[in-house]
Amino acid sequence: MTAELRGRRVLVTGAGGALGGATTRALRAAGAIVAGLDLIGGGVIACDIRDADSVSAAVARARTEMGGIDAVVHFAGVGMPTSSGAAPGDAVSRTVDINLLGPWRVTAACIDQLVAQRGRLVFVASQLAYATIPFAAAYTVSKRGLAAYADSVRAEYGSHVGVTTVYPGYIRTPIHDASIAEGLSLDGATRPQRPADVVATVLRALTADRPPRDLACSALGRFELAACRHLPRTADAVIRRRLRRDLARGRHNAAPLAAAMRSRLGFPDPTPTARPTEERIA
Fold first, then answer.
1. Which are the contacts of 221, defined by CB distance < 8 A and separation ≥ 6?
2. Membrane-spanning residues where (predicted)?
3. Whole-angstrom distance, CA of residue 114 vs CA of residue 120
C-alpha cells in the first residue's frame, strides 16, 4: 500500500482519538500527507464538526497546508448510552450531530476538491449500524444514518469520487467509557476486534483500484454483515438470545437504564431502580 499512498493528501476527522490517531500514523508512515481534525489532541487542526464555520475554516487550512485534498476519512464520533423509549435530549442531539451531521458538514466542505481530484471518501460506521443492541439507540441511529448518507454521496458523486463505508466491530477505546460508567460494558459480551484491523481496512479502501462499497474489518465481521443484511430475522433472534443469556448471568444488574427491560423479561434487578430519564444519563 505504501506506493499507492505516497504523496496522497488525506484529511482525517477524529484524528486525536485512538483509531483516528492510529490511522494518521499509518498513513504518514506510508508516505501520505495528512491533516487531522479534532477538538483536542497534539498535531491536529482544531475543529468542532458541529459548527459550520469551524468546519469551513479547518478544511480551508488543511487544504492550504497540504496543497489540496485527495481523500477524507471520517473517524470522529461519540457513544453514549440512550434508550429508544426515553424522549430524546442532549445526549441524542449531540450524538447525531457529531456522528452524522459532522461528517456531512466536512464532506460538503471538501466535495469540490474530491471531485476535481477523483478522490476517495471513507466513512467509518459501526457493526451497530446493522446489528442492533439495546441501550445504544442514538449511536445506532447515527451510524445507520451515516451509512445511508455515504450511499447518497455515492449516488450523486460516485462517477468522480470513490465512497466506502467501513463497519468495525467492538474495539475497546475511550468511546465506550460512558457506557461502562452506566454499567453497560460490552467487555466479555462480544469478541473484540483489533485497532490494527480497522487501520488496515481503511488503508485498503484508500488504495484499492476499485473503491469497495462496504467493508467489515475481520472475517467474522464479514459474516455478520452478510447475515444481518440477508437474514435479518435470524440475526435479531441471535441477539435476543444473547441478551437473555447475559441478563440471566447478571449482566447489566447495576445499569439503571436496563432496569425496565430486566423487569419486562423476567429478570428483576436486585434492588428496584426508577426508570431513568435521558437527562440522568447524558
1. 127, 167, 168, 169, 193
2. none
3. 7
Report, in angstroms and rounded to the nearest whole number, the Rg of the chain calculated over CA atoms: 19
* E strand residue ranges, the chain: 9-13, 33-38, 45-46, 71-74, 120-124, 162-167, 214-216
Rounded Cα gap, residues 211 and 162, in angstroms = 5
What type of residue sits at position 69? Answer: I
* Other Cβ atoms closer than 10 A to 65: 11
pTM higher than 0.70? yes
Amino acid 29: pLDDT: 96
Could you give the CA distance from residue 239 to residue 63 in angstroms, rounded to a whole number?
A: 44
Residue 110 has pLDDT above 80, yes or no: yes
* Helix count and strand count (H, E) for the chain: 12, 7
Give me the domain span that covers residue 9. 2-231
Residue 50: name the closest of 2, 110, 94 by CA.
94
CATH of the domain at 136: 3.40.50.720
Q: For the chain, what's the residue count? A: 282
C-alpha distances out from residue 173 to 102, 160, 197, Å: 20, 34, 14
What whole-number distance in Å separates Cα of residue 39 and Cα of residue 18?
Answer: 14
pLDDT band at residue 164 under the 50/70/90 scheme? very high
Strand order in the sheet with 33-38: 45-46, 33-38, 9-13, 71-74, 120-124, 162-167, 214-216
Residue 236: inside a domain = no
How far apart (Å, rounded) are the C-alpha atoms in residues 94 and 115?
A: 30
Provide the domain count of the chain: 1
Q: How far is CA 84 from CA 132, 197, 276, in A?
A: 12, 31, 12
Rounded to whole angstroms, the maximal C-alpha distance in the chain is 61
